């Protein structure tokens, strides 16, 4: 709740571009829309209503000032050059920064068809979208791109583990490394039926 609309924009943007590029729109069929939206509203709405009742200017300040004005203007006085988060990403990757070239090499050595069918695409978008999104913002703080480090750690771990066993879907197939999400997707959706 404390992140407001960003809590929807970042994961929503990542998922949207993943579905757009991979063509796996059928995954939307297994999303628990009714129960998920209901749970979200139950958790989020009471807090916002209570805050608005106690503070008459809350809705404007919270949604307009803290979201749109902070993103589109210099009102927060946190301006940085457009490449600011690239530096944050590199510095935040120490001491594993030396694995970047290997991740890039393996990504570009994969065919477009293979990339669209494995979960590496999802992890890459999880990194790229927040960095690009916040790089376009007029307000920049180091902590804005903290969500990119978990997927980056996964990609680094794949390069760091010499005994990894990557199957044809691009997932680590060892039981203790397996991706439950990716396995669920494969069990639910037949790749041959995807658009």
Characterization of the model:
The protein has 195 residues and is an all-alpha fold. The protein has one domain. Helix 1 packs across helix 7 and helix 7 crosses helix 8.
What is the compact description of this entry?
The protein has 195 residues and is an all-alpha fold.
The structure class reads mainly alpha
Tally of separate domains: 1
Number of strands: 0
Query: How many DSSP helices?
Result: 9
User: What gyration radius follows from the Cα positions, in whole Å?
Assistant: 19 Å
Mean pLDDT: 85
Helix content: 55-70%
The proportion of residues in beta strands is under 5%
Largest sheet: none
Distance between the ends: 35 Å
Q: Element order, helices and strands?
A: HHHHHHHHH
User: How would you sum up the global shape?
Assistant: globular
- Unreliable segments (pLDDT under 50, ≥5 consecutive)? 172-182
Task: List the main descriptive attributes of the protein structure presented here.
195 residues; mainly alpha; 59% helix
Produce the secondary structure layout:
Blueprint (H helix, E strand, L loop, with lengths): L5 H17 L10 H22 L3 H15 L11 H9 L7 H9 L3 H6 L2 H16 L13 H12 L19 H9 L7
Helix pairs in contact: 1-7, 7-8
């Amino acid at each position: 709740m404390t992140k407001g609309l960003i809590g929807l924009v970042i994961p929503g943007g990542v998922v949207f571009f993943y579905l757009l590029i991979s063509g796996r729109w059928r995954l939307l069929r297994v999303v628990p829309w009714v129960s998920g939206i209901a749970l979200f509203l139950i958790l989020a709405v009471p807090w916002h209503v209570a805050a608005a009742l106690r503070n008459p200017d809350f809705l404007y300040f919270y949604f307009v000032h803290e979201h749109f004005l902070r993103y589109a203007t210099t009102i927060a006085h946190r301006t940085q050059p457009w490449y600011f988060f690239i530096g944050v990403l590199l510095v935040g990757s120490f001491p594993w920064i030396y694995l970047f070239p290997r991740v890039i090499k393996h990504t570009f050595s994969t065919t477009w068809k293979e990339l669209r069918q494995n979960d590496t695409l999802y992890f890459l978008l999880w990194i790229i979208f927040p960095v690009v999104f916040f790089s376009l913002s007029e307000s920049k703080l180091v902590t804005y791109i903290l969500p990119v480090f978990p997927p980056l750690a996964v990609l680094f771990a794949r390069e760091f583990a010499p005994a990894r066993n990557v199957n044809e879907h691009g997932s680590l197939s060892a039981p203790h490394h397996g991706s439950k999400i990716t396995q669920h997707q494969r069990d639910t959706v037949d790749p041959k039926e995807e658009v």
